[in-house]
Fold this sequence. Notes:
With 139 residues, this protein is of the alpha/beta class. It is built from five helices and five strands.
Amino acid sequence: MKTRRILVIDDDVQSTRMVKLSLERTGRYEVRELNDPVATLAVARDFKPDLILLDVCMPGLEGVEVAFQIRADTELQQTPVVFISSLVSEWEAVGDGTSKGGFHFVAKPARLPRMITCIEKSLNTTWSANEFSIEGKHP
């Protein structure tokens, strides 16, 4: 099985560390942590992740804004994004697992089995930059 590259972006250092260690322990993922959302595009272009786990609420630059930047970037626009949020309950995130914009959500604190299911589902979905929309906003 191919090791998949995951970029975890969250302003909370403990959260990114926990996610990194949990995912890498499975042997299926190589994970890079980022605690400064402003650096997302540069780090993502360098790391070339297969998927980005992105916190919704961060100071300075919200996750939705970062997602807009990712979708607007020609090198990254096909990279699946999974939002991690304490703003949704696990029950809400489980539903069909997607938001209006087609993004998957994982509720914090993220349980590993749910996170892996969401990651794998997202990795097996083909994304189109034209499908990107959250609550009526467009890039």
